[in-house]
Design goal:
Blueprint: H1 2-21, E1 31-32, E2 44-48, H2 53-69, E3 73-77, H3 85-96, H4 100-112, H5 119-129, H6 134-141, H7 144-159, E4 167-170, E5 174-177, H8 184-195
Parallel strand pairs: 2-3
Antiparallel strand pairs: 1-5, 2-4, 4-5
Helix pairs in contact: 3-4, 3-6, 3-7
């Protein structure tokens, strides 16, 4: 009798789990991009902005989640050709000089912290504090490598129709807007659900029979 109750209890847990995993609906909790991102970009892509406090607060949680799930993850600065460009340039410059591990958190401070220093003086202040070679940094700032990366991130921002940050794209197709989430916990539940449910592959095109 006891074993029967245990079995029923486990079955009920499974049914609740199945219900939870299928309770997220397209159009309500996530949407589908009209034009998917390029293949191979990452399992999960975050469009972010260094002036976004939510992006900063989510960073350690996302880091732990990525390690737990063992998935590929990409950070793309959201910007247009005229808006939020300097913050995106800071991101790409840090990548080009190989200083992202140091400057990722620092970039948030540069953009968000109130201080009298502005522009290049403000950036130089934080570069000095963190031992970053300023000459190397400013050489990369306007380099072809950074310009090319800027063009790419602007194009991806436009393609994904990102108008607010953070925005997450899963499997290059599913778009998750954090403002639609009731909590941070639900955000990660939706991300878990979408990571575990990649879109079905498109049917292969029929090949024309070869002529003899």
């Amino acid at each position: 009798m006891a074993q029967r109750f245990i079995l029923l209890f486990l079955l009920s847990l499974l049914s609740l789990t199945a219900w939870a995993n299928t309770s997220f609906k397209e159009g309500e909790h996530y949407t589908r991009l009209a034009q998917p991102l390029p293949k191979g970009i990452a399992t999960v892509t975050e469009f972010f902005y260094y002036g976004c406090t939510t992006c900063f607060e989510l960073s350690p949680l996302l880091g732990d989640w990525i390690k737990e799930k063992k998935i590929s993850f990409a950070l793309i600065p959201a910007h247009s050709e005229t808006a939020m460009v300097d913050a995106a340039r800071m991101h790409h410059t840090a990548q080009v000089i190989g200083a992202m591990n140091t400057l990722y958190a620092v970039n948030y401070k540069i953009v968000q912290h109130n201080m009298k220093l502005q522009g290049a003086d403000r950036i130089n202040h934080y570069l000095d504090l963190n031992g970053i070679n300023k000459e190397l940094y400013w050489q990369a700032w306007s380099s072809p490598q950074v310009e090319q990366r800027l063009q790419g991130s602007a194009a991806l921002t436009k393609q994904a129709q990102v108008f607010k940050t953070p925005t997450f794209i899963v499997h290059g197709v599913y778009k998750v807007d954090i403002e639609k989430m009731s909590s941070i916990e639900q955000l990660f539940e939706v991300l878990d659900f979408l990571v575990a449910n990649p879109p079905a592959p498109a049917p292969a095109l029929l090949q024309k029979p070869k002529k003899d």
